[in-house]
Every structure is written in C-alpha cells, then in structure tokens.
Amino acid sequence: FSFQLPEYASVEKDTTAGKRAENNCWLTIKFPSFNGSINLTYKEITNKENFAKLLEDAHKLSYNHTKKANYIDEYNIENSKGSNGMVYDVGGEAASNYQFYMTDEKHHFLRGSLYFYNEPNVDSMKPIIDFVRKDLDYMLNTFEWK
Q1: 17 vs 24, 89, 96, 114, CA distance in Å?
Q2: What percent of the chain is predicted at pLDDT more than 90?
Q3: Is 103 exposed, middle or buried, given 0-12, 13-18 or 19+ CB atoms closer than 10 A?
Q4: What's the pLDDT band for 21 if we cut at 50, 70, 90?
Q5: Which 8-state DSSP code applies to residue 85?
Q6: Phi-psi region of 129 (alpha: psi -120 to 50; beta: other; left: phi over 0)
Q7: Average pLDDT score over residue span 99-103
Q8: Each residue of 54-63: b (16+ CB within 10 Å) or e?
Q9: Residue 77 burial by Cβ neighbours in a 10 Å radius (0-12, 13-18, 19+)
Q10: Most exposed among 19, 40, 121, 141, judged by the fewest C-beta atoms under 10 Å?
C-alpha cells in the first residue's frame, strides 16, 4: 500500500512484528515534533469469516476507549483509489483519539491508531489533535493498495 505522508512524519518498520507470526506487516508513523505516532497493522483477508473478524476487532479496539472518551464518532471513508474504511474519531481524554481501518474488502486490511506519548488532556491536546487529524484524513484519501 501507499499514501501521502505529512512532511513532519516518518515511517519505521516495527521490529517486534517479526516475533509475532500472525502479523507480517507492522509499521509506525512517527510524529516526533508532537511526541506521537500511528501504529499500523496489516492483515491479509483470507475469507468472509476472517474479514468479518477483522471488522469486529477494529470496532472493539476502538470502543475500548469508551471509559475515557466523551464520544466516539464513526464515519465511512471511500477514496478515488478504490480503498474504503472507517474512521473512529474519539473525543475526550482517551489514549487514542483517532483510529481507522482501510480495506479493499477482498485481500487487504490495514488498521491504524494514533497515540501521543504524554498525559491525555483534551484541553491542551485539542489543537494538536485537530491539526494532525486533518493530515490523517488527507493521508487516507490518498491511500491505495499496490
């Protein structure tokens, strides 16, 4: 897969992925100036049941933040490159305020979670989260499967 990355970000391969046989592609998008990152996990879709489980897991993992979240807004995303998915916009003092998945619904599934490595504080983090969220929405609109 490919996508346009913000200039202030870099991508690194997660070296712990090789120790877990079920995950053959883990990447981290790092935002050093904001002390944050997005953890990306790719999974191959093998059948309809597997796809349903990937969707269920993405939903459950996003909703694990309901204890600290003020709200979770979901919105579908579909781009002109043949990719679609869901964004979970998590409000409040949750550990991850932006989560998503992208898929072609046949072969590929990618899940991502945005984290900042500081104390969750909605008042002080809101401007940064809003800034990064716009770039992430753009990134997903440029996302395509290879």
Answers
A1: 7, 26, 21, 18
A2: 68
A3: buried
A4: very low
A5: E
A6: alpha
A7: 97
A8: bbeebbebbe
A9: middle
A10: 19
